[in-house]
Amino acid sequence: MAKGLTADDLRTEPDDVLVTKLKEAKEELFNLRFQGATGQLESHGRLREVKREIARIYTVRRERELGIVTVEDAAEEDE
Question: Any coiled-coil ranges, and where (predicted)?
Fold first, then answer.
């Protein structure tokens, strides 16, 4: 996988950071879609990357909501 967010990296982040990253990714996706609509988009692959980043963030948030993985569990696995 190219540079970007991985699920393991996201699992160690606190909830407020995830919310911030999600907001930034959604803004970037909006801008990329806007560029595509106006014919200014240079990298169509970036659209796919950003969508996947958003999906990863939602997945990590849902895991925490269901109690599958917590921030403490993820930190212990990294050590």
Answer: none
